[in-house]
Target: TfdA family Taurine catabolism dioxygenase TauD
Amino acid sequence: MAPSATSTVTVTVPASAPKNLSTPQHFGAYKELQPPEYNKDVEEGGAKYPHYLPTWDAETKYPPLEPFKHHEHGQDADRTYPDLFPASGTTERSDLTPSAGTEIRNLQLSSLSAAGKDQLARFVAERKVVAFRGQDFKDLPIEAALDYGGYFGRHHIHPSSGAPAGFPEVHLVHRGEGDESSKQFFAARTSSVAWHSDVSYEQQPPGTTFLYILDKPETGGDTLFANTAEAYNRLSPLFRERLHGLQATHSGFEQAAASLARGGVVRREPVANVHPVVRTHPATGEKAIYVNPQFTRDIVGLKKEESDAILNFLYSHLAWGADFHVRVKWEEGTVVVWDNRVTQHSALVDWENKQRRHLARITPQAERPYETPYQG
Ligand SMILES: [Fe+2]
Model:
């Protein structure tokens, strides 16, 4: 259960934050969807993976994240993907949409060699999001799952999410059996859709990201993805050119404040960072829109109305683009791997029978976002 705040805590924007963040007119607002607590007895007795139940360590504080040199394994990959699709032909591949999203069966991720993992990083960068069915990831010791994910980059430790006891690097998404917190949410909001790229406020946000299901409602709780490289390609050359060179502020302050407001924790001081509005993928060279309504606040150097107009247009474009979206349905044993640099996603809280939904995310960080020059 989330610890209660013992005193009033506020999150303030430090002097070191980008100047435009200190204005009171931040665009957008962080949408908090995670329930603040769960029934410990019900969950410990009923969860399929009780050792993955969230704990919130209010005592341990983590220092600011230091920059590190990221190695992009997708650059090293054999693009014929011999380890993913061996000549024996046992792997079953089914593309979910033409531009993005693939479903793979009969391939065990945990048995991939280093070369296979390089191919995985590249394949996911190309297909944006890949659902691997029938995986044993959830049954591995947590150390082994982390060891696997650590190949792709330094583990991100989330500042406010729950984690399995002793494993702060695992980000948990959990809504316990009987949970009714969504009622309160929908009393104030019309939809649970909250498009975002994970923790984009970090200086080096995640790249190849793993999310695996532990327990799920019978129906519902799918995850939506948007292909942000294809979303960029849909823009006119003139508009694309205008976006190049722009930078936007991404803030973790509102998420931290939301955690404190519901009695949760903030394990690391919140940060804000400035990233290019269009980023280039280091392995594929593709360009992608890199602003999202959960964490992006404004475009540096523009007046508020100008910044809001461009961001609103881009958010609307990303949300409307069902012709570059992928909807992933979870099955027992599914591991979804996405490239956080060229996608956005949203959970859906659309089931009302109070069944449990429980997932674990392994979140290797990647390079600091950069853009390469516009080429018309
Ligand atoms: Fe997310």
